[in-house]
Structures are given as C-alpha cells and as structure tokens.
Amino acid sequence: MAEEMEKMNRYSVLVVDDEHLAREHILNTVEWDKLNISTLFEASNGYDALDIIREHHPEIIVLDIKMPGINGVEVLALMQQEGLSAKVIISSGYSDFEAAQKMLSIGNVVEYILKPVNEDQIVEAVIKCIIKIDEERKISELNRTLKSAREIIRKRELFDLIFGQANDVTKSKYNHIEDYIQIAVARSQHGENEVVGFCKTLQTKYECLREIFIDSRLSFVVLYFSSHKKQGLDKVFTICQELNDNIDCKIGIGRVFSSLYDANLSYREATVAYDVGLLEDVPIMSFKNVRTKLNQTPIFNQIIEDLKQALINNRKEEIDRLISEITTSILNSYLNSEIPPTADRLSNLKVVFMHCLESVMPKQAINLNLNSLLGCINTDELYHTVKKILIQGCHYYSKKNISNKVELVNAAKKSIEENYADNISLNSVAADVMITPSYLSRLFTEIEGQTFSDYVLHVRMNKAKELLSDRSMKIYEIAEMVGYRGTKHFLKVFKEKEGLTPSQYRNNILLEN
After folding, report:
1. Are the C-beta atoms of residues 186 and 223 closer than 8 Å to each other?
2. What sign results for the dihedral spanned by CA atoms 460, 466, 468, 471?
3. How much is the average pLDDT of 451-472?
4. Are strands 220-227 and 180-188 parallel, antiparallel or unpaired?
5. What is the extent of the structural domain holding 504?
6. What is d(CA 160, CA 474) in angstroms, rounded to the nearest whole number?
7. Does 369 lie in the same domain as 489?
8. Within 13 Å and on the Cβ side, how many CA atoms surround 163?
9. Which residue among 14, 95, 139, 164 has its CA within the 20 to 30 Å range from the CA of 280?
C-alpha cells in the first residue's frame, strides 16, 4: 500500500520544443527530484510528442506553440480528440494576450509562460500542475470509494427487500422501479459453498442472474434474477436445471413480478415451492406449478366455489368453517404421509390459501397484501390473517366497487387515528388493512382528495392543537405524543402547516380566552 501511495505521488514530465537549447535549458535547470518528478521525456516535434504521450502518458507537458510540421495548438486538439489527459504548460516566444487567454480556456492547459523561461517560472508552473493532479486524484479516489459504498448499500437494500427486512424508506425507494424480478432458492447436501461457487460461474454466462445471497437461517442459497423485459427471465428454469445437473440440489422458484418491491413475495413463494418439491421429491419446483396442480384438484375447486358463495352471501360463519376445513385437510395430509423432516408444513397451507384468495377475488388479487399471509409463522396466525382478508372480501362481492374503496379508506383512517402517536407509515397501515401500499396510496388520493401523508399530518396537527390548549404540557411532550421523535422537526412542520409556531398558537388561544 505504501509503495502504491509513493508511486501515486510521483510524476513524469514531457518537454516539447523544436529548439534543442530550449529543451536542454528546461531539463537541466530544474531540480526535478525535489518536485517528485521521477521520469523526464523530450520531443523535438509534435509527432514525436504524441507518440510519447500515447505510450507513456506523462502527467505534465511543457509544450512549445510554434513548431514545424504540427504545432502545439494541433497537438492539444489531437490530445482532446483521443482523450489523452495531461496537465499542459504552454511556452511561447510571443506575447499574445488573446492567444494566452484562449489557451488557458482549454481544460488541460494550466499555465502560459513566455520564453526565455527561467527556473522559478517552470517550478511554479509545475507545482500548479501537481496541485491540480493531486486534487483530481483525490476526487477520483473519493468517487471510487463512493461508488463502492453505493454498491454495498444497494446490495444491502436488495438483501433487505428479498428477506423482508427493508424499512419504509427503502421500500418506497424501490416501489416504482419497474424491472422484472424473480427469486429462486437452492439447498444441497454438499453445502452452500459449492452451490455458490457454481452459481458464480452461471453469473458469467447468464446476464439475468444478478446477485447471489445466503439465507443463513434456512441454509438456502438465494438467486436473484432481474431484467428490464419480462422475456429476459425466460431462462430462469434453464439456469436452475443447469445448477441441478452440476450440483445435486433441490430448487424452489418464485413467480415473476414487475417491481423490486415484491422481491420478498417471490422469495417466500420460492421457499414454499421448495418445500412442496421436497415433499413430492421433485428436484425443481416452481410456485406456478404448485398452483397449477391445485387447479387440477376437484376438491379444491369445490372449496373455491363454496368460498365465493359464502362471500357473495356475506356468511362469515361459513367462511370461518371453510378456512378450518382447509387447514385440517392439509395438516391431515401431512400426518398421513412420509414427510421429510426439513419440510415446513405451513408451506402447503400458505400456497392453498394464497390461491384461494386470488381465485375468489380475481380483480382484487393485485392489491391484496399477500406478504402478510406468506410471512405467518404458525397456523393460528395464518388462520386469522386469511380470515381478515376474506371478511374484507365480503365487501368486494356485496357492495359496489366505490363502496368497497370507501370501506378500505375508512379502515385505514381508523388505523391512523388510533396509531398516530406511533411511527406509522403507508406500509404499516397498508399491512393493517391487508392491501398493498401502492393501492392504499392511490385509494387515498381518489377517495379523500389528498395524499396519505397529508391525512396523517392533518390528524397529528389537529391533536397537537388540542393538546396546546393545556398550558401545563411542554411542547416537546406534545411533539412526542403526536408521533414526532424530534421537537425540531415538529416545530418546522407545525409552522409550515399552521403559519405559527406552537408557542405563538398557544398564546393566541390564551388571548382568545
């Protein structure tokens, strides 16, 4: 590292002049080693100078303007054209102010000095070049560091999105990025390292295989596929087949989604597909195939029809009974078969219920918050989550679409009014009412004529004004009680919204009373 730094702080100089004595004067007058100049080049014409520049890339060039053949101006033009960078000191025997100004306007020209050149002029000009070179090197290094940091942050955010650990800021950031994504998970008895090693080989062959992660909790190797076009993911199954052919492993594949926001959903589907494949001893199982098999089951189709009828007729007790029937049926199928010890018995239940929800409410499927369903950790939580979504489905069948939208917005408003003091967000409220954040955002604008954020602000400000009438309460206490963890931010928001600071508002109330 020290050697690299020392090398970075050494420089080379090219002196270009058609007069031999002028070159010798510059080369022999200056104590170059004291300026950290390690290499000196010389050229008597523009052609030789360009050859040296192309081959050796000197950092600093002392360039004469008037030369036969190709002059200094033409050398500069060719350097710019070819992208050859160096700091240039122009030396000329002509005192032409306009020419000097024109030269200095060229990005690489640092100084314009008149002949005959003395040592002080050259030293000062070279030091000026070195300062600029060092500044650019520092900026370049900072940019490399920044680029590396951004890549680390991007990978961390992607990891969090896939594994369901992303915060609201990250989710919002990626919500509108419309790349097509798909997740696959793989596990082998040979261990994670062998799978990762071969996947890295596949990465060099297939552009759509963007990242490889390890789920240490479940010992999965997680493959992240992405493409600007949907057909760019057509080779995902082929890639998984190639992985399985070379590394004996089981693989589960999630569905394709049109936003990174749904990466966690595709990942959870992949783990479900993996478990179903493990149960059926199929090396590669896609979530799409799991659902296709369900469609071919007469009993399942009858359950779907029964659920639709229960929703249409608003029979909540019947919905409850059908959910229990599905749960019991799936769990009994596990008990009556030889189940691999690593299989998750919740997986089949999640697949069945997800397919139920999307089948009985097809037009609403895109807006259902299915992540909440796939994230359930036990049968009780799954049961209550499915029931909550299906009860909402009664509105879908029994009321006009606009009425259903109003019901959802009212439920969201109730959630806000009950939890405004907490760190609520679009994502947390959407999860509470079992729809996607993007759908809730659109509904708020459509039904309320204002954004979700504006409504939360409205609720918090009204409560803050109510609390300000109590003289005994401190302003920082009020800020915290209405959901602001920083008093400074609360003061700024209040002033922007009400046109007064909280203390001014309080004084006005006292005057009115």
Report:
1. yes
2. negative
3. 89
4. antiparallel
5. 455-512
6. 38
7. no
8. 18
9. 164
